[in-house]
Design goal:
mainly alpha, FAD/NAD-bd_sf, Thioredoxin reductase
Amino acid sequence: MTDRTGRTSVPGVWAVGNVVDPRAQVIAAAGMGSTAAFAINTDLLHEDVEDAIARHRATPAPA
């Protein structure tokens, strides 16, 4: 099962195109891939921001 962006219930695993819909034609499969790519990029960006915030908070303030 996937959500509308292709995210599965397994963290870090996405499924799109003919894996999700065997009847999908090339243009539909490509569209699903594009949608997943945007969603994956957004997830990675959020992860980077959260990591940067955590590092900033862990850094002692200058005296």
